[in-house]
């Protein structure tokens, strides 16, 4: 591929990954935070541990475990490929999953803390007394009350997802033109001596990082972040 095309692919891939992660954080991370904030049993503790694991476990080791689990001979990846024709490893879905796993703790744990506030529990109880169902209470009381925290968490999750390297290298494979994200392509550029390309990609990351920081600071300055 031409140089410009070679550099544009990882940027576009990273953008797609970040958009997918935002959707996954809303569909998976938000319910997980709710569940962990309202349950105290073994299942909730196990889920909280699994969500937090990417923060305390080395990314490469985390990627290796996911590779064993989702590979074609793995207990999950094998049946998925044989019966559904779905392959996660060394594909774009694998890159998305890697980024999602890396950023999930930064979404779930702050949201969990926000949902455990006593005043929010009282508002939810009042909504239920007035006849609002569990889903209605969650959508029309809980989510609006934590919406600003949710926005900040999404920014943090996307920031982490956009810079993910260790898990992605194991699960995505760093295949040029297929699974090489922006951060991985910086590593590739340096490895082949293309320092100008690495600098251009670093500049893109710097712009994105500055924008995310500005948005987070805006939330903090208004007291909206919930941190």
Short description:
This protein has eleven helices and no strands.
Fold and architecture overview:
The chain contains 11 helices and no strands. It is mainly α. It is globular and about 65 Å long.
Label this structure with key terms.
227 residues, mainly alpha, MetI-like fold, single chain, globular
Question: What's the structural blueprint in terms of helices and strands?
Answer:
Elements: H1 3-38, H2 42-56, H3 59-70, H4 77-84, H5 92-115, H6 118-129, H7 134-145, H8 147-162, H9 166-171, H10 182-191, H11 195-221
Helix pairs in contact: 1-2, 1-5, 1-8, 1-10, 2-5, 5-8, 6-7, 8-11, 10-11
Helix content: over 70%
- State the CATH topology: MetI-like fold
Helix segment count? 11
Q: Kindly state the mean pLDDT as a whole number?
A: 89
Report the biggest beta sheet as strand number plus sense, adding barrel if it closes. Answer: none
Structural class: mainly alpha
User: What proportion strand?
Assistant: under 5%
Compressed to H and E, one letter per element, the order equals HHHHHHHHHHH
Head-to-tail CA distance between termini: 45 Å
Domain module count:
1
CATH architecture: Orthogonal Bundle
Question: By CATH's scheme, which homologous superfamily applies?
Answer: MetI-like
The top-level CATH class is Mainly Alpha
Number of strands: 0
- Low-confidence parts lasting 5 or more residues at pLDDT below 50? none
Shape: globular
Q: How much is the radius of gyration in Å?
A: 20 Å
